[in-house]
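Hi R.,

Here's the input for the DOR complex you asked about:
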Amino acid sequence: MTRRPTEGGRLVIRGGRILDPSQERDGVFDCLIENGRITAIGAKLAADGAEVFDAAGQWVVPGFVDLHAHLRVPGQEYKEDLASGGAAAVAGGFTQVACMANTDPVNDDPSVTQYILDRAAKESLARIHPIAAATRGLAGQVMTEMVALRRAGAVAFSDDGATIMDAGVMRRVLEYSTLVDVPVIVHAEDCNLRGHGVVHEGAVATRLGLPGNPAAAEEIMVARDIRLAEWTGAHLHVAHVSTAGAVESIRRAREAGVRVTAEVTPHHLTLTDAATMTFDTSTRVAPPLRSARHVEALRRGLAEGVIDAIATDHAPHATYEKEVEFTEAPPGMIGLETALAVCLQLVREGVLSPLELVRRLSTNPARVLGLEGGSLAVGAEADIVLVDPERIWTYDPGRGHSKSRNSPWADQRLTGRVVATFVAGRIAYGFEHKDEHKDEHKDERGVPNR
Ligand code: DOR
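And here is the predicted structure with DOR in place:
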């Protein structure tokens, strides 16, 4: 039978491999939690009366922070809502999620930001942070009221899904963002160069007869925005970097002291445009999956710290919307529940150590958004994830938590799974959720129910 720790209770997670990038800690320790905060990390902690969770053989890591997800509230709740998105988040180990502004209505007004936060407080298991639009209606013309939006709780500004093509408007957006000191997150893609491109412009696009979206469309816009960030002194954050040229521009800018950070998605790190050969519309994403040369550059950029964070770009769409011609399908794939398993491939292939993977899923994205989190230091909020890195399971989006199913990993065997997620010291996922996907080692390594 499952027992939940009582609110404000004491619990101890025993004998797990603690991976805490904020403390450069990688070792087997116990972790004591009291009143929702971490109060001790050490060997064989005395914890009389505390509820005990045995984490032998598991990783104990700070909750992941997704700085880029589409939770579709308000207005597109048939794709996702804050209950389903929050449940998908904690099932994937994400205790904090920043949600993009391309909702209906657009989150370009403090009342919308407040609405999202109010609903999140009631419905979401994960902590939700709204990202407000940078321009009204995401139209790229008139700036939003940044100070009011920030006061209402926005953690960043972004027209994600659309590019601010007018450099003059972009300059003003960056300038004004410095007043509230939060990042401007850019979907960097020159719309004219992209045209109607739906896959990476290259040999695969030619073979498929699909219109291509050239790497230069991203590379040119990243270069422009970096120059504007340098000029204005603003914090520019480049969303879903997908090209080698963008990585190089970001590298040079950082070396020159420009305030630029960047994220990459699990799909751009592990899939190439060859995945689109099946015409599976879940592989239609914006920006598109690129060729192997670009994927290699993204991995190198991530390993070297040029790219700070991994972000899911969780983009749910209804099945009927995706079951159309490739060119007609809306771009996007879901990713909250598979991100960890997909990214563990990078550990197995020697791209990242376990500690460095956790840094990019947790510590760094928290830093980019200026959020508390990403740390298992004494005093930190007990947002903690237990991971079994070896567990093999078959992902079934139909039995997952998201309302949508548009995943290229559907029905695939994945290695590595979240066993339990704590938010503020309370169980948000685990123990009660053993029936969702086919789990080949169900009883061998799970944290025992108590
Ligand atoms: O693939 C994507 N889907 N990229 C975006 O920029 C937008 C997103 C969505 O909202 O579905």
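One thing worth noting: Confidence is low (pLDDT under 50) at residues 1-6, 441-450.

Cheers,
M.
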